[in-house]
Write a structure and sequence with these properties.
By secondary structure, this protein is an alpha+beta fold. It has six helices and 14 strands. The radius of gyration is 20 Å and the shape is elongated. The model is unreliable at 1-5 (pLDDT under 50).
């Protein structure tokens, strides 16, 4: 399916629409779904998202409505692209800024050449553990619920594919990067493992999903922009039938 020529076209939500959203910082993916669902009232339609973003991440979130929700798994399975920033010299239990640092490391001996070279071992088919603070379910409960209670969790490895891992800026302790990867890849885990490969620590400080399959962030709505467009369209009931 191609990206819509005009994102402000008339929608047919009941038949099914694929909506591209720029998820705001500190919103959950479910917050975005809820906002769109509420804007569609009094219509009672299925609304879902393809590919969860962490609250501290921003960028492209695909929302499906109506009959198109049946295709969520298809959209979710597509290749993803991210840009982000990692911080070397510290690690956190959540692998990002959700939790405070639990260890610090000396970065004075890390060279730019070492940073560039370390990406090679994280390209291709790799094995990684999901973060303890993640939405992965074990016995029906999400890992982050156990982690926030301080409980030990048994993490299981998964195989993912990283087709591109590019360093775009080095200003230690910060390192900017671009990653193209398969469904199910945890960029937080990738960053944590990257720090370990340098005999150091690292956590994710910024993450943005820029692409999912053929859909790009450049074509996405801001949340309130889309809500206002939906409200305007409600004045034309025939377009919502």
């Amino acid at each position: 399916m191609d990206t819509p020529v005009s994102k402000f076209r008339p929608f047919n939500f009941a038949e099914g629409e694929l909506l591209l959203i720029n998820k705001p910082y500190n919103w959950t993916s479910f917050d975005v779904v809820g906002k769109i669902r509420n804007s569609l009232k009094p219509l009672k339609l299925k609304v879902g998202h393809a590919g969860t973003l962490d609250p501290l991440a921003t960028g492209l979130l695909i929302i499906c409505t109506g009959k198109l929700t049946k295709q969520i798994d298809t959209f979710q399975a597509e290749e993803k692209e991210y840009t982000g920033t990692m911080v070397l010299g510290e690690s956190t239990p959540s692998y990002d800024m959700e939790t405070d640092a639990d260890a610090t490391f000396d970065i004075s001996n890390i060279t730019e050449e070492q940073v560039y070279a370390a990406t090679a071992q994280f390209t291709g088919d790799i094995q990684q553990y999901p973060p303890a603070h993640s939405a992965v379910k074990i016995n029906g409960e999400r890992l982050y619920e156990k982690a926030r209670r301080g409980e030990e969790v048994e993490l299981r490895t998964r195989f993912v594919t990283v087709s591109a891992f590019e360093i775009t800026r080095i200003a230690l302790p910060e390192v900017d990067f671009r990653v193209v990867c398969s469904k199910g890849t945890y960029i937080r885990s990738l960053v944590s493992d990257f720090g370990k490969a340098l005999n150091n620590g690292a956590y994710l400080s910024k993450l943005c999903r820029t692409r999912s399959g053929n859909f790009k962030l450049d074509d996405a709505f801001e949340v309130l922009e889309l809500v206002n467009h939906i409200r305007e369209q409600k004045t034309q009931p025939e377009e919502l039938k």
